[in-house]
Amino acid sequence: MLFQPLRYLIAAPLAALHLFCSATAPTPLLSDYTHNAWGAVQGAPVDVLKFAQGRDGWLWIATAIGLYRYDGVQFERTDSVYGHRLPSNNVLGLAATADGALWVGYRLGGISVFRPQSSRTYGAADGLPTGAVFHVEVAPDGAIWVGTRDGAARLAPGAQRFEMQGENVNLPSRRVYQILFGRDGTQWMGTADGVFFRPPGKVTFSHAWPRPGMLASMAEGPDGTIWAVDTSDNYYRVRRSAPADGTTIKPDAHGTGMRFDRSGQMWLMQRDGLERKFVPGDPMAPAQRLTRQNGISGPLPQSSYQDREGNLWFGTSAGLDRLRPNRLKTLAVAQPFDHPGMLPGPDGSVWIGDYAGDIGSYTASGLQKRELPGHLSASYWAADGTLWLGNDEGLRRRGRDGRVTAVAAPAEAHGLDAQALLQESDGALWASFSGAGLFRLAHGSWTRDGGLTGLPTSLTTAMVLGADGTLWLGNADNIITQVAPPNGEGKRSTRRIGSADGLQIGTVLQLYRDGEHIWAGGEHGVALYQAGRFAALHGVQGETFRGISGIVRLPAGDLWLHGADGLYHIDAPSMAAWLAEPALPVPFERFDALDGLQGHAAQLRPVPTLMQGADGLLWLSTGSTIATLDPHHIRRNALAPPVQIESLTSDGVRHVIAGRPLLQLPEGSRNLQIAFTALSLSMPERVRLRYRLSGVDRQWQETGLHRDASYTNLAPGNYRFEVVAANEDQVWNHQGATLEFRIAPTFMETPWFVVLLALGGALLLYGAWALRMRHLTRRLHERLQERLQERLDERSRIARSLHDTLLQSVQALILSFHAHVDVLPKGTRERARLDGTLNLADQLLIEGRDRIMDLRASASADELSLALQQFGKGLAEHRAHAFSTEIRGRQRRLQPRVHDEIYAIAREALFNASRYAEAQQLTLELYYGEDDFTLRVRDDGCGLDETVTQTGHRAGHWGLPGMRERAAAIGASLEIVSQPGVGTQIEVVVPAPLAY
């Protein structure tokens, strides 16, 4: 602060001028409004001719090169309205009706009406005058009035044609520039021949006074006065008749256009900017101007509008401007403050001083008078009415009588700013000086730290007296010290409070007494002391309330905080809930630059930066301004924002959704972008949008300024997309907007494909299973073949051994017996008995040979037929019948068991036929077919007895049942066909999968 003395030497001579200007200068335009200007660089239209706001919330803007619309975020030039194309882009007239229709008039003639479901254009064939459509107005009865180059026309409600309004109602058939319906029901017409009016109930119009030509623009004041302008930019108060005293025409204001806002303020459009008049028609009344020097979008303002949220819009030759009424009112002064400090005045005003000027008393309307000279860095009003003021030049004491006395600062604090001041009940003053420390003034002398030991050495930034007289000292290193009142011996105890006691706010910026409790605001937050500890206050969504240097608790319980990020409000119910449960985060609202707050709260001095005046207003200071807010009458936006879904883009293809209850998307649509918006023109930055897609989003998704949603890899099916929105005051449009769409499935996503896929999978599994089974079967077959071959080899070995030993020996024995029998006489009893025995031996030899043949039978493809042929021929040699074999098909190797059973069945059948059939011919047939294997044994003998056919076997014989059992064992069918005297056929059929 070494530069401060020089700074104040320069600033002091300007103090009187500063206060004089503050008292006489008009309030700056931006003190009550937030101004935004847009031009071509921001995509905004230029040469704006008309505004209109539809029921759906869109702000429509007419220009000579096209129609624009604005949703609060972006300007969009459009060739269509509600999906219906404009016949011309050269738009001049514009009006929106309560039923949602938009009327668009064209410079080259004609007018169109657009509704969501239809549109229509009217021309000369529909009774509309030719030429440019200057103005479109909706009458109280719903009729549409049009002002054109060739006069006025009216479209009655429900009518299909316009009706000219000319000589039949005493109107000129020439240019009609504006049509106005007054609050009293009078209709006013601004024409090239002057202003005409028609009171309610009248048919014809009357010519108003004064009567200069080209009265193009009209406006109605709050008192019902009609104002009109001529070609020389002169505005007149229009009267229904000329003054009786012959008063000459005299303009009351100058401008190219005029508007009265809903609060009654007059706005004059002039060629170089905009002027706000506080007293219409009074040239000496305070006025405010907005020109190129202070930010208007361009010269030649030519159109104006006030939307339903109260914003004022002005169109210029280079863009357009919005003036939004602020919630916070910036105090009107001619020059900005330089870090002002505030304190309550004794007369109900607020005293304000800063580093550059003197101290003055102010009300919400501005400076009232100069109170004290000198600048201000700290102040304190004592309970006894004493006012203490401090800066780098020392201290001043103002008594209850108004007399001011200079008080020298401690020698250590010479030239240093006073940081905080506090007077105790005994009149002693505590003072903290930046860079010097804490001192106590009692009985005319200063004592460092008041003679106390153990106080922090860091800067004491804030002080407050508790309800019990305890002195609270806040320091720069997250320390607060309690200094108890003197005891009976005059001694004072101290207690240091820090992190261990719940204090986590960093540098203490303000201490505020709230009844029995103490609030502490600091660099990192705010906390309340109760029950011996501090409890930190936290807001929802992680808000910490940083940099709090101003605290006010209203009698109703609301808490207001002023900090680095703005002004916070926590309502009484939320505070009550927090006091009961301090761990809960509190809901809050914040006021910042969007609400008219310029700058942030001081982070060291002067403090406090927030106080409540005697007028009930909240006063808050920033680095260069003082602002006020009425906590009981905060400007609110009660209009829930309309919500609209604009478009759906699927894989790069934009789909129009207007008027389509269900949007059908092509098959294969996967990636979607859905554009939507909320129509709120005041604070789009604070509009909250939530959306969700049924079946995808489990909960609402919240978005900020970007107003679209993207989805990827969506499955086919029906979807419902919903959007809801809230304005800056959390007024929700819960109905919102919805879009239903369907994504058609590709063939691969249809149920048929799923079925086919399942079938294919099943077939694949079956194929894999079949291959596996085939492999296992083949392995098993190979192993069986190996084992069978081993068995066959063993059987062949046994057969050879039996043949070479037993059979040969038996054969030799039989031959030996034959030799002995041959020597016996024929016909003798002994020879007959021996012949019988030898026959039995021959039979035994034959059967033994057969069994040996069985042992030698193998599973080769031709072994079966050879073995059976040999067996059949052997039978034929001993019987009186012939034997033949018939083999058909390609011989194959039979399964081992099938081979054995077929061989046994065939032998049994051949043997029975040879022995019992008395046949002349036996036939063996083997058929190797593709579908089955067939064995047939036929004879031409006597056939089977009827009892054998019925019972299936001969008494005492089990050959036939044995054959049936063998056939069943291998899955074969056996059929016996026999006719007496004709013969018998036995047929065995084995299916191919079992046979081979």
Question: Can you describe what's shown?
Answer:
A hairpin with a 4-residue loop joins strand 57 and strand 58. The relative contact order is 0.05. Helix content is 19%, strand content 37%. Among the domains are: 95 residues, Immunoglobulins (Immunoglobulin-like); 107 residues; 136 residues, Heat Shock Protein 90 (2-Layer Sandwich), CATH 3.30.565.10. It starts with a helix and ends with a helix. The strands form 18 sheets. It has a 5-stranded mixed β-sheet, with no helix packed on it. By secondary structure, it is of the alpha+beta class.
Helix and strand arrangement:
Elements (H helix, E strand, L loop, with lengths): L3 H8 L3 H10 L8 E7 L10 E4 L5 E5 L2 E5 L4 E4 L1 E2 L2 E2 L5 E6 L5 E5 L4 E5 L2 E5 L10 E6 L5 E5 L2 E5 L7 E3 L10 E6 L5 E5 L2 E5 L7 E2 L10 E3 L5 E4 L4 E5 L14 E2 L2 E4 L5 E5 L2 E5 L9 E5 L11 E4 L5 E4 L3 E7 L3 E2 L10 E4 L5 E4 L5 E5 L2 E7 L5 E4 L5 E5 L2 E5 L5 E4 L10 E6 L5 E5 L3 E6 L2 E4 L11 E6 L5 E5 L4 E4 L10 E4 L10 E7 L2 E6 L2 E6 L2 E5 L12 E4 L5 E5 L2 E5 L1 H9 L8 E3 L18 E3 L5 E4 L4 E4 L13 E8 L2 E4 L6 E3 L6 E7 L9 E6 L7 E3 L4 E4 L5 E10 L5 E12 L7 H72 L6 H28 L6 H16 L3 E8 L6 H21 L4 E8 L3 E8 L6 H6 L7 H11 L3 E7 ...
In one word, what is the shape?
Answer: elongated
**Architecture of the domain at 861-996, CATH level 2?**
2-Layer Sandwich
Low-confidence stretches: 1-28
Find the structural class using helix and strand composition: alpha+beta
Please state the average pLDDT score. Answer: 89
Distance between the termini: 114 Å
